[in-house]
Amino acid sequence: MDYLRFLRANWVFLLAGFLLTFTSSYGQTYFISLFAGEIKDSFSLSDGQWGGIYTVGTTMSAVAMLWAGVLTDRFRVRVLAGGVMMALALACVAMSINTSVLLLIIVIFALRLTGQGMMSQLGSVAMVRWFEATRGKALSLASMGFAAGQAVLPVVFVALFAVASWRSLWLLAAALIVVTIPALLILLRHERTPQSMTAEAQIAGMYGRHWTRAEMLRSGLFFLMIPLIIGPAAWGTALFFQQVHFTQVKEWDLVAYVALMPVYTLSTIATTFASGWAIDRFGVSRIVPFQMLPFALSFAVLAFADTIFMAGVGLVIFGMGQGLQGTATSTFWAEYFGTQHIGAIKSVAASLMVFGSAIGPGITGTLIDFGIDFPQQMLPMSVYYLCAAGLAAFGIWKYRPTLGR
User: Residue 100 burial by CB count (10 A; 0-12/13-18/19+): exposed, middle or buried?
Assistant: First the structure.
């Protein structure tokens, strides 16, 4: 009932957040990787070469996010979103017409910067800025756009492969983005802005201060949290990026595997709502130390899975990790470092996330070229998640007393 009352009272801004996160889908790895086979065939690329191109383009976007992400502290969401969405649409058009391997790097850069980077940044920063005591609920509801994109778009676009060329489907993606822009602008015609909310809704972080980005970069807590930021982006991205290879190794039908995405999404949604409620009720400090554990377990399950059913079990557990990650991490930055410079601070986190999503495909693709298939790589990834959980738990234990609340 709390969620329903909250949704009725704030549906305009929550729907705007949903559209922002949903539109990020066209630059997310799970969407781009649907075309991996066709891209490799069209450009005569191996797994390692395709992974390398993806890594270079995504790394470039991670660097660009350090600058671009700061813009969310200075401009209204509706001003930035319209331009970013048009740029994302143009990147989709470029993917549909490009025939150059060299330009493929630039196209990936544009897709990742505008889609995964800026659209995701806009969605999360808007919720953190617009809502105070109900940040967890706001983030969980807005992040349904991520979940909806993961549930719907892979199934729809894989089905469309039977009747349309992969290049024409990128034009369809561009058209879908363009028609979303007017809806978003209408919703935000009376936008809550960072400027108008500053006086009454700024919440300080550790030691009662609003940390700048430079100060955060010198804090011990930030460095302890780096593995938690990079891990899900790197290895979660690799899981989707290598899904064609993964299903081939497991001898599963790709369509059957992709059909599991709605089940994974339902798990993500359920955990997102539960974690949003738990964050508002108990605080983000009690959630963050545990958010890596479902990732660790899911990768272990998927490594040994020999049936589509067990793949579904693994993806359900993975969805639990995604649900926790989607709400807890965004709330964490506001809780511990304050909200006054949240755009600049989150741009660093977003850059690290994008960087993680860059190295994951590159590392896994190279290992595949050396004969180490993706399922064999998954157990070391599980160990990584456990180590990241330990570091995050230590950071929370050490710095939580400085919050003073």
Answer: exposed
- For 322-371, what is each residue's pLDDT tens digit? 888 877 777 788 788 877 777 778 778 878 887 887 788 888 888 988 88
Inter-residue contact 151 to 28 (CB < 8 Å):
no
144-180 confidence digits (pLDDT tens): 888 888 878 988 998 898 899 999 999 999 999 999 9
CA neighbor of 29 nearest in space, from 99, 94, 120: 120
How many Å from the N-terminal Cα to the C-terminal Cα in the chain?
A: 27
Could you please report the per-residue DSSP string of 324-335? HHHHHHHHHHHH
Residue 222, token pair as written in the block? 């930030």
The average pLDDT across 207-216 equals 82
Kindly report, residue by residue over 19-45, the tens digit of the pLDDT: 999 999 999 988 998 898 899 999 998
Number of residues that this document lists for the chain: 405
Cα separations (Å) of 32 from 201, 353, 405? 38, 17, 43
Q: Which of 2, 220, 284, 16 is nearest to 125 (CA)?
A: 16
Residue 288 CA, distance from chain mean position = 17
Cβ neighbours for 245, distance < 8 A, ≥ 6 positions apart = 47, 368, 373, 374
Compute CA distances 41 → 38, 47, 160, 272, whole Å.
5, 11, 18, 37
Asked if 194 and 73 count as a contact pair (C-beta separation under 8 A), the reply is yes
Dist CA 110 CA 92 (whole Å): 9
CA–CA distance, 350 with 135 (Å, rounded to integer): 18
- For the ranges 110-119, 152-161, 273-282, which has the lowest average pLDDT? 273-282
CB 231 within 8 A of CB 388: yes
Pick from 9, 18, 21: nearest CA to 134: 9
* Rounded CA separation 332/309 (Å): 35
- Residue 355 and residue 226: Cα distance in Å, rounded? 11
The single residue listed with the structure tokens 């800026």 is 118
CB 85 within 8 Å of CB 181: yes
385 close to 296: Cβ distance less than 8 angstroms? yes
* Tokens standing for residue 75: 């401009």
Question: What's the CA gap between 117 and 66, in Å, rounded?
Answer: 10
